[in-house]
Amino acid sequence: xxxxxxxxxxxxxxxxxxxxxxxxxxxxxxxxxxxxxxxxxxxxxxxxxxxxxxxxxxxxxxxxxxxxxxxxxxxxxxxxxxxxxxxxxxxxxxxxxxxxxxxxxxxxxxxxxxxxxxxxxxxxxxxxxxxxxxxxxxxxxxxxxxxxxxxxxxxxxxxxxxxxxxxxxxxxxxxxxxxxxxxxxxxxxxxxxxxxxxxxxxxxxxxxxxxxxxxxx
Length: 217
What we know:
Layout: H1 3-19, H2 27-37, H3 78-105, H4 119-129, H5 131-158, H6 177-204, H7 208-216
């Protein structure tokens, strides 16, 4: 037996007994250690922070209890989700202003009056009285959706387009992280507000401010 073989044999003989003094790592202990080291969500401290929500997006507080940010199939990913959130927030802000304007100032000339009813009920009167206008608006919105869909697809492919950026800034607002945060926060609030106004109008069939007055009476 050569000197090298003898050295290896001695090393292996010494290593085997030494291994007996090393405590094996229990699977449960390893998993628990990993869970303790994982960063927790800022919005939901009892849940682990989603991997993709690293705080770089405006308004990101790690709130994703349904795991939507982790979807990455059938054309849906975090880029698409943020695009949808911004778009729905903008539509909801317009809807909220429209609700309040019609409630306080009334409809445009030639359109049905509320006469003590909710704006939801008045909408169906508008469909009956002005079907061409409603269909035209629906077609217009469909065209807008197609155009924005193309922009979203190209933006995901190139990675050069920020979600929600359509180059539309007629008032030349300065785009800053603070402005982006304000937009996403106001959009989220408006989505709740618009949903609430539609729900109360559908259930009570009464004007918005009449329901508010009842709440405080």
